[in-house]
Amino acid sequence: MTLPSPMRIREMVRKEFRQLFRDPRTRAVIFVAPVIQLLMFGYAVNTDIRETATFLIDHDRTLESRKLVDAFRATGYFEVVGRSERPLDLVRALDHGDALVGIEIPKGFARDLAAGGTSIQLILDGAESNSATVAQGYAQRIVQRFALERARQRGALPSGGIELRTRAWYNPNLESRVYNVPAVVGVIIMLMCLLLTSLAVVREREFGTLDQLVVSPLTHQELMLSKTLPVAVVGVIDLTAIALIAVFWFDIPIRGFPPTLFLAALLYILSGLAVGLLISTISRTQQEAFMSMFLFLQPAIILSGFFYPIESMPSVFRWVTLLNPVRHFLEIIRAVFLKGEGLATLWPQYVALAIIAVAVLRLAVARFPKSIAA
Amino acid sequence: MSLTRLLAISRKELLQLRRDARSLYLAFILPLVLLVLFGYAISFDIRNIRMAVLDQSRTPESRELIESFAGSGYFSVVEHLETPADADRALGSSAVRLVLIVPPTFSADLAAGRGAIVQALLDGADANSATIAQNYAEAIVSGYSTRAVARGRRVTLPVTAESRVWYNETLESRNMIVPGLIAVIMSIIAAMLTALTIAREWERGTMEQLAATPVHRLEIVIGKLVPYVAIGLFDVALALSVGVVLFGVPFRGNLLLLGLLSLLFLIGSLGLGIFISAAVKSQVLATQVAMLATFLPALLLSGFIFTLATMPIVLQGLSYVVSARYYVAVTKGILLKGVGASVLWQDALAMVVFAVAGLAMAIGVFRKELA
Asked: Do B196 and A117 touch (CB under 8 A)?
C-alpha cells in the first residue's frame, strides 16, 4: 500500500471546501443552523417542575384547608390555576390539559384532622407521566410534612426525630438546563457531521462525478481522507461556537480543562464522520442516505443517556449503548463541564470513542470499492 | 384540474418510489425501530439508585436507617465510605448518585430527642434523577424517623394524600410516549420523503420536462402528495397497532376522528415539505431545512416529551405555529383521555388551517418557479 500523498489530498480538500462553500445558503446553514438548534433545544429541554398548573377543589373552606393549600403554593412547585366546588370542572380542566394536577380536599377536613385521621385526593394527569411522577413526589412530601407538624403540635408524636438535609453538588439549584445543554451540544455536532458526510459520496455518484474521481490517481484512502477533513474542520468550528454560547449565553459552568474537551471532540467528530461516510457508501440515492442517517441518529440519541438514564434501561440495551459514540461523548462533556473531571477518570470513554472512530472508518474505506461497483 | 393527469403524476411518483425500494422500506422500518426503542428501552422509572454510605455513628440505629434505604427498593448501597473526602470521589466519578452521611452524634441526638441530622449529598448534575432521588430519600428518612421516635407505639399521621392517576393509571412512560411518537414519526416521514421530491427533480433536470407537460401545478402538487399521504397513513396504522397491541397503550377514543385528523396533519406537513423542496432546489439543503423546520419543532415544541408550560414564553408562542403541537394534543386526547370533537375542536380547527396553508404554500411556490 502506498502512503497517502499530501499534495493530492490538498488538492482534493480544496475541491471539497469549494463545493461546500460555493452555495451561500449552504454556508449559512452550516454555521447558522447549529446556533438556532442550540437556542431552541437549550430552552426547550427544560424538565424542571415548577409552578405546575393545579386545579383546586376545596369542599371544606376552613383555616386548616387554606393552610394546606398554602403549604403547596409556598414550595413554588404548584400554582393554583383554577378552583371550583364541582368535581366536573376538574374533569374538564384535565381533559383540556389546562391543569396537570387536581387537589380535592373533602368536607370536614379540619374536623377530621383534629380528630387525627383524614385524607385528601391528588389527581394527576398520567398522559404527562414524567411531570406527573415528579409532581406526585413533591405533593406527597408536602402533605407528609404538614401531617408531621400537626401530629407534633397535638403531642401525638414526641419531639426530636431525624431531619434530612440535602445538598446537591455541581448544580445546587437542580436546574435541568445545566445537565441538558452540554448534551445538546454533543447531539447537534453529531447531527451536523452526519448531514454533511452521509450525502458526500452518494451525491457524487448521483451526479456521475464519482467515476471521474475513481479514474483520477487518488487512492481510496486519500479520497476518504479528503472527504472527511473539511467536515472535521467545520465540526470543530461549530463545536467551539456553540460551546461558547452554552457557557456565555446559558451560563453553563465549565469546571474542567477545555483542551480535554477538545481532544474528546476530535475523536467524536471523527466517529461521526466515519458513520456518515459508511452510510454514504452503502446508500444508492441521497434520499436513502438521508433516511439511513435518521435510522442511526434516532436510536443513538435515545440510547445515549441524553434524557433517559442508561441505568434504568434493560440490560440488553445497556450493552448496546457501549457501541454508541454519543453516549461516550455525552459522559465526557457533562463530566468536564459540570464536575471538572479529566482524563484520569474519563479515559475509558476516550478509549471507547477512539476504537469506534477507527473501526467505523476502516469499515467505510473497505466498503468504498463496492460502492463504485454498485 | 383533471383527475387523469393528477393520477398520472401520482403513478409516476409511486413508480419512482418503488424503484428506490430501500427508501420505501426505511419509511416503514424507522417507525418500528422508534416504537421498539421508546417502548422497551427507556423508562423514567428510577429504581436501584446507586448510593454510598458514610456511617460515622456505627450504632444499631444508624444501621437500621441505612437498612431502610436498602430495603426500600429505590436505592442500592454499593459502597461504604471511610472519610468525607471519599464522597467527593464517589460523586465525581459518577459511581453513585447519592451519599448518605450519618454523623457521630446521630444515636445520642435521637435518643435525647434533640433532633438528629443526617446529610444527603446528591449528584445534582442530572437534576431530574436527583430530584426523584431526593423525594425518595426524604420519604424514607421521615418514615424511619416516625418509627424511631414513636418507639413501638403506633403513630397514625393525621392526614395522608391519596393519589389517583387519570388516563395512564400506572404512570407508564410508554403510554405517554406512543401517542406523541405517532406525531413525530409523521413529521419525519414528511421531512424525509417529500423534502427531497422536488429538489431531486431539479437536480436531475427532470423539472423542466415536468413543466413542459400540460400538467397544472395544482395537479403536480396534489399528485405528488397522494402517494406520501398513503405511506403516512399506513405508518399511523402501523404505529397504532404496535402501540396498542404490543405495548398495551389504551385506545379510548374514536378511531375515525383520529384517522381524519391524521389526514389533515399529513396534508399540512407534506405540503410544507414540498414547499421547502421546491424553494431550495438542492437535496443537501432541503434535508437541512426540513430538519430545522419540521422535525425539530415536532420533537421539541409539540409537548411530546417536553412540557410546553415550563418553556420560556417565546418558545411557547412559537409552538402555536408548530402543527405537531395540535396533533400531539389530538393523539394524546383520543388515545389516553378518550375525548372527542367537543374537546378537540380547537386543535382540529388549527389543523385545518395548517393543511390549507401547507397546500397553498406548495402550490404558490410553483407559480413563481415555473413562470
From this structure: no
